[in-house]
Amino acid sequence: MQKIIRIGTRDSKLALWQANKVRxxxxxxxxxxxxxxxxxxxxxxxxxxxxxxxxxxxxxxNLDIAMLNGEIDVAVHSLxxxxxxxxxxxxxxxxLKRANYTDLLVLKDTEEFFGQxxxxxxxxxxxxxxxxxxxxxxxxxxxxxxxxxTRLDKLHNSETWNGAVFAAAGLERxxxxxxxxxxxxxxxxxxxxxxIMVACLENDDYVKDACEQIxxxxxxxxxxxxxxxxxxxxxxxxxPIGALxxxxxxxxxxxxxxILLKKDGSRKITVNQNVKLGSHKFLAKDxxxxxxxxxxxELMLEDNEVSKKLQHIYSTKKLxxxxxxxxxxxxxxxxxxxxxxxxxxxxxxxxxxxxxxVVITSQNGVEAILNxxxxxxxxxxxxxxxxxxxxxxxxxxxxKVAHVTKNAKKLGEYLSKELxxxxxxxxxxxxxLDILPAYLQLHNIVVNEVEAYKTMLSPVEIDKEVPGVLFYxxxxxxxxxxxxxxxxxxxxxGETTAKEARKHFEKVEVxxxxxxxxALELVNSYFTx
Length: 529
Hints:
CATH superfamily of the largest domain: Periplasmic binding protein-like II
Largest sheet: 6 strands, mixed
Structural class: alpha/beta
Shape: globular
Radius of gyration: 25 Å
Distance between the termini: 59 Å
CATH architecture of the largest domain: 3-Layer(aba) Sandwich
Number of strands: 24
Low-confidence stretches: 41-57
């Protein structure tokens, strides 16, 4: 029976339109598929283990997690929303032919405000804001967020905005482009704007074979150059960057133009280059070097210095641009990954015979096992785990779970009472709490530990003046303590992390939901109350 390809997507109207576009193209080739909408944060709540896989895109991470959990086979994204570095195990397999890449100004009334010194337009894009202010320095740009429909409604209801900037492709795909909308042909778009991207698991050959057939080569070349230009300039910094590459069909040349601006639009550096198609390998690097050599790094550092003056918190994991924008404007943030995960190669002899009682206490433990063995090679009779998300991952990727508990202590209590064969195999990290093995051994249960992965501490010494630190796991706290003091407020993603923080910090605040977004909102309420 032919495999039905599960297409994951966000549940906005635009995202569903894009997913259905991919579905139709696959079905035209004879592949069966189904749309699987994935809810935003709150429906898929992430914890420490999967954060450490490098998932950063606020618009893409839930789909990444669903794919790693085996809930979907492909994810469909607007490529401009996708981080330039994908999570481990996930690849870009196809891009569809690019749609309209221009930005549009949707007017509230008339365009008379262009000639006035006090015009007001709205956009949530740093790139659009900087380019608008560079062209119209006396105008004001106000923040506008939400999906396409929500933003249009906000514009319609605003009493002060003269217009708002949108991507043409989104409005056209939904059939809601206003006839009076003005194409901003002078504005260089976001890298890959107007492009639908399909991602899949690197080891899923069936899906890779299917999706490779809908890949549009010319689009792949152009957006690849644009995103590489972005990656080379960005360097982890948030900066207004635009890039556009297109192929001239007559000359068979790749034409590229890029821009880097100060956030307030007061300065810009532009680059334009053309090369023959086939000789474009170093085009992105050459253009990025051109910008850097003309003061690009210094321009970005100036903006970062301004950000440092606002700094109030430090995050012990890297945050995406969109996550940082959750914070109030008067709150700055610096970030770094204090924890890194590396899977060990588990010896083949571990799976030579069926293991009767297996204990797994984290999703990283599951991923580490699957990194060494295929599902068919795994011989587990009874699996016991901690956490409902770990249970879901196990049942999607390995097999049925015999029992799940909320924490390690409760699992120890259950096993000590229920196990007939008093022996377990525990797949764990080199760094882990001793609660479970100590409890089991106290009740005469033999614990065979298999070090499936390493949790490596990667601490950074932070400025002593920073009053607050964001923590996402007990291991993150341990890493932080190697180089830093505890005379700060500890903002914690959940109660388990908070419990560890209370051992060291006098002031501990806990997020309402175990999500990064909730933790950032907690910071907002703390510093602006």
